[in-house]
């Protein structure tokens, strides 16, 4: 009885439930400043709780399934935020999906990846990982981003950087197909390419067996699955409640509207970043790369189909095409990423290169 009571009073259970209760009380109402602050705090707490429960489930199922669970959970949060903000933003939110997805790609492929490589290389001088799995993930990210965000800039069937209905349908189907094939490759056919590696005396990579503590019992995993659902509901609902405040804050600071997408991506991917850095500190660079690139793949592979479906009832244009500066940064990211993952080994230099590219993205997002 005591253990059950302690489990029910943990912050990872209390915060999501409290966030849902507050959401029910403020839904559809104009929020004053203090209430917005309270909802925002609960929103952040619900995001952290959601990732915590995803990690519990991940610990139960093991790698690389664990990274997959966390990436999908984070992406569901991201999709919910995008759809809710687009539904309430009208034409002002026409480019929100593009800005958020591109921000997620830059954060994961440069910010999270660069920070993980830097932490791992500082500890062991050289960060070691599987080039086969990492290269396959990077190729998938590059293909999905090009098909979904680069091509709309150059198509001519519809004015502006937009897809026609047929083109958007193809992009959605291709995205979900590639995501499904990647998941099958990661978890079934070539699972060993995505397991953590360690450096041997001759510099070869050898698979490291799981050295975590005993996995949680099935009951604890089931509770975490339920609380993960509650936390996701809280995140999506509370995000819609505070979305007017986010837009007003961005406008007050004189930032471009695209900064809203960057804020969303940073908020959603912060727990993912923490998890990747923790893995890097334990010399599990492959897990960090799985989290980073897997989140980018899930972000595009699941968001684009969801937005395509949402466009059936959302009014206004759907702008997906990137601008010249964004495409330049993406091309640089792909080139640098290839040079990083092909050797299967990275030093602090590669980590700093990715972080500098990420810093350039942030500067251009604030001052385009």
CATH superfamily membership:
NCX, central ion-binding region
- Quickly give the structural class: mainly alpha
Task: Specify the biggest β-sheet.
Answer: 2 strands, antiparallel
CATH-derived topology: A middle domain of Talin 1
Straight-line N-to-C gap: 57 Å
Q: Enumerate how many helices there are, as a single number.
A: 12
* CATH architecture group name: Up-down Bundle
Tell me roughly what share of residues is in helical segments. Answer: over 70%
Overall geometry comes to globular
The CATH first-level class comes to Mainly Alpha
Mean pLDDT: 81
What proportion of the residues form beta strands (DSSP E)? under 5%
> SSE string, helix = H, strand = E?
HHHHHEHHEEHHHHEH
Number of domains as seen in the coordinates:
1
Spans of at least 5 consecutive residues with low confidence: 1-5, 199-212
Radius of gyration: 20 Å
**Total number of β-strand segments?**
4
Describe the strand arrangement of the main beta sheet, using strand numbers: 1-4
